[in-house]
Design a protein that fits this description.
Elements (H helix, E strand, L loop, with lengths): L2 H9 L3 E3 L5 E2 L5 E2 L1 E3 L8 H14 L7 E5 L4 H11 L3 E4 L12 E3 L6 E9 L3 H12 L3 E10 L3 H10 L3 E6 H10 L5 H12 L1 H7 L9
Parallel strand pairs: 5-6, 5-8, 8-9, 9-10
Antiparallel strand pairs: 1-4, 2-3, 6-7
Helix pairs in contact: 1-6, 2-3, 6-7, 7-8
The structure holds 1-O-pyrophosphono-5-O-phosphono-alpha-D-ribofuranose and orotic acid.
Cofactor: Mg(2+)
Organism: Candidatus Scalindua japonica
Subunit structure: Homodimer.
């Protein structure tokens, strides 16, 4: 996994820690760590490294359309499709309730091979829903590529059972190793996040922070 990108995320403080008031993930899981890759769009030099890493990761895949997930995947899909001179789409979480009523905007995906661009994978739920949307629209998804994954077992399962390749530039263990070697996180912080990552679903309830029920 890519150490340079992990370092960039840490140096630009996209990675945040808060054990006293843990973050709530979209899945409802509570966490003392949050990786806010959205912040990286603010840094032209570093974001270019991330765009190049996305392109490197997907270089062996044959795709016709670059599709960003709404919302955090969209800026990356824009830069990637621009660099590769390929058509771009973006995938909404739900059909738009007015206007043209689309769920996929931009390039027509019907009958096309689509590469989905996501910023981050936790449970994999959001990005796999994007895969299903592409399939429903008549496209095939050659892979989902994301900047970062927490390597949850659940995410691996969702993708392998759903028959879609999941590619990631960097991951939790690489991030933790870089943070340790470069002295970015203290021993206490490192053991906090390692403890959480062993059993993310039960970490919150065990520490007095119930998970949020997302239905
Ligand atoms: O793997 P999952 O458990 O689904 O979690 C990861 C998703 O959560 C975040 O999106 P968020 O819902 O915060 O929306 P945003 O992209 O609009 O910021 C992130 O951008 C991923 O899409
Ligand atoms: O699961 C999430 O919602 C999530 C986790 C994280 O670290 N970063 C993010 O943007 N979303």
């Amino acid at each position: 996994m890519n150490k340079e990108i992990a370092k960039v995320l840490l140096e630009k403080k996209a990675v945040k820690l808060n054990a006293k008031d843990p973050f709530t993930f979209v899945s409802g899981i509570r966490s003392p760590i949050y990786c806010d890759n959205r912040q990286m769009i603010a840094y032209p030099e570093e974001r270019e490294k991330i765009v190049n890493a996305f392109i490197h990761e997907s270089q062996n895949h044959d795709f016709e359309i670059v599709a960003g997930t709404s919302t955090a995947g969209i800026p990356w899909a824009s830069w990637i499709s621009d660099k590769l001179n390929k058509p771009m789409s973006y995938i909404r979480g739900a059909k738009k309730g007015h206007g043209a009523g689309n769920q996929v905007e931009g390039a027509e995906i019907n009958g096309k091979r689509v590469l989905i661009i996501e910023d981050l994978i936790s449970t994999g739920g959001s990005s796999f829903r994007a895969v299903e949307t592409v399939r429903k629209g008549g496209g095939s998804c050659v892979a989902v590529v994301a900047i970062f994954t927490y390597d949850f077992i659940k995410a691996g399962k969702v993708f392998s059972e759903g028959g879609c390749k999941l590619l990631t530039i960097t991951n939790f263990s690489t991030l933790v190793n870089v943070a340790k070697n470069d002295g970015i996180l203290t021993e206490t912080e490192l053991s906090l996040v390692l403890d959480w990552n062993k059993d993310p679903k039960n970490w919150g309830p065990k520490h007095g922070f119930p998970n949020v029920d997302k239905g």
